[in-house]
Amino acid sequence: MARATRRAALAAPLAALPLAVRAQSWRPAGQVRIIVPAAAGGTTDIMARLLAQFLLTRWGTPVVVENRAGGGGTIGTLEMVRARPDGTTLMLGNIGPQAIAYALFRNLPYRAEQIAPIAGTIRGPNVLVVNPNVPARTVAELAALLRARPGEIPYASTGVGQSTHLSPVLMLQLLNAQAIHVPHRGSAPAQIEILSGNVAFLIDNLTGIIGHIQAGRVRALAVTSADRHPLLPDVPAMRETMPELATYDVNTWFGLFGPAGLPPEIVTSLNAEVMALLALPDTQRRFADLGGVGMPGNAEAFAAFVRSETTKWAEVIRREGLQLDAG
Question: What sections of the sequence does the record tag as coiled-coil (predicted)?
């Protein structure tokens, strides 16, 4: 599915949203912006635009999406952190800058306590894909190519510190193989690289690349979750493919955040709006089409989840001995 087609499919049904969801006490006094710390076209961007359109119909107030890509998501996150905590500046974040970054970057310009988790939106596995011209139809065959040409075969990611960076890092570590990392500012430019054949493989969010897989523009070798995915029943889980990868299990996720200090009534109201969006059957169908599922729960539960993910990836990064400079 092309990016424009995906966006149209996501946005079109929102004009006729039911009004049965409970009205919330807080409403923004003026225009709201949702910062996306990634390039346009990827899952983070898609989710932000879906939420913005929903909030516009609920509030009757302009909600604009601003892409602030770069620095593995840290540039956009820092802009959000510096905003006034009045509910008019929010961020659609993800696993990279909101969990992985704390251990990955030695001079990260923000701290976890400066960010208020509000609501989870969508989660799903990543998927390992190769350009159709790559002579590998299984993970084992790709591993053989990597081992035969150590440090020569390039792979793309959607940014340094994203799950699409550390997912292949973990895979390569377990395989005792090396490859050349080619980071990009978001999913869309990384996908362009693999579609054009400039890189051999990519581990991207299934939600963002499922259209290219279904169209045959890339070949899926494995999903990163513990089990196979219903949209790709013939594609194995990574841990099925080789004994070295038996412990491999990675999922990515996306959620709404704000600057620390948001009043509780704003957090509660925004969480309720996101939950109303997730409860719509149409949203659930579109999430399934994208290869993901919703993340229902209150703000406290989402904050606990984010903390657990931060701890998990800190241990992975520590074992890898990987640390980078932010920026």
Answer: none
All domains in the chain, ordered by first residue: 3-123+252-320 (3.40.190.150), 125-245 (3.40.190.10)
Cβ neighbours of residue 85 under 8 Å, at least 6 residues apart? 116, 258, 259, 260, 261, 262, 263
Residue 187: partners with Cβ closer than 8 Å, 6 or more residues away: 38, 39, 41, 42, 43, 44, 158, 164, 204, 205, 208, 209
Both tokens of 122, joined, read 């969508």
Q: How far apart are CA 192 and CA 189, in angstroms?
A: 5
The two three-digit tokens of residue 251, written as one number: 């999922």
**CA pair distance 237, 227, nearest whole angstrom:** 5
What is the pairing mode between strands 251-259 and 115-130?
Answer: antiparallel
| Helix, strand, coil percent values for the chain (each to nearest 5) | 45, 20, 35
For the whole model, what pTM was predicted? 0.77
* Nearest CA among 129, 69, 65, 73 for reference residue 291: 129
Characterize 125-164 residue by residue with b for buried, 16 or more Cβ atoms within 10 angstroms of its Cβ, and e for exposed.
bbbbbbbeebebeebeebbebbeeeeeebebbbbbbbbbb
Alpha-carbon distances of 140 from 150, 186, 239, 281, rounded to whole Å:
15, 28, 11, 39
Q: Please state the φ and ψ torsions of residue 174, each to the nearest 5 degrees.
A: -65, -30
Give CA–CA dist 212/196, Å, rounded: 12
Question: What are 36-69's pLDDT values in tens digits?
Answer: 999 898 889 999 999 999 999 999 999 999 999 9
